[in-house]
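User: I need a structural model of Alpha/beta hydrolase from Vreelandella titanicae for a docking pre-check later this week. Nothing fancy, just the predicted structure tokens so I can convert them on my end. Input:
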Amino acid sequence: MKLFVNNLVFAGLVLLAASVPTSHAQASPVMDERQVTLDQTLEWTMQNEQGAVYRILISKPEGEVPDSGGYPVIYVLDGNAYFASLHEAKRAQEQFRQAIIVGIAYPGEAPHNFLRRSYDLSPPVAEEQNTPPQGGQDELLDFIEHSLMPTVAERFPVDANHQSLYGHSFGGMFAIYALFTRPDLFNHIVAASPSLWWNNSYLLKHERDFRQQVEAGETSVIHHSLSLIVADNDSLQNQQDASQLYQRLEDLSAYGLRSSFHKVEGEDHMSVPFVLESRVLKQLLGTRGG
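Assistant: Understood. Predicted structure tokens for Alpha/beta hydrolase:
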């Protein structure tokens, strides 16, 4: 009898243990696993005249068309790395939702395509220095001006007088080159940690030409702005070059060019773009890029 009772108790314990769900049994099975997508975005593919392929990432405008008749547009270089955080910062702040953000990105998942950006964002160099290949800055500007901007304007009402360019590092250098050589293309520029030292400070010649044209009245910079931003842990040369460029351009405010310089505390060259989203949006969308 005692053995029979013990067997019943043992059987009951086994049944009880079987009825208690394990941690694996408690977890819900994953259903319909998919990649994360960003709401209110589009993506399409384009080629430049040389056949190079770009991914174009679009943060769609929300709300009524502004009184200007079109939406402001921000073009973002290295879109693989910087588009998503700018898009979400824009959508989270109601005053910025009317803007269109256009990420100029490359095929693939890498945040930075080293070979493509080295070519696209740089000036030509001597053959013995051309590793990796460089010198595509005007090809990219031609693509933006003659292909990308018209395509964006076909799809959305665009404010032609409120178009901006944002770039970091090589992208910041490229953005300043765009200001100096095609000042009518963008109204507002934000250059974060620009590589002004590149190729023996090649931008100095373009800066002198730009200044001469502005002072001679050949180029209008009314309602134009340039914002220079560095990290306090950027290289000392990066910080000094950007600060000195700001000081040299400051007196062009008499002709309408508004310039600013800002140092971000506690960040370095690679981290600084990821704390700038709201500052960039305010610089480019607040009070006509003020």
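Before docking, keep this in mind: The longest strand covers residues 158-168.
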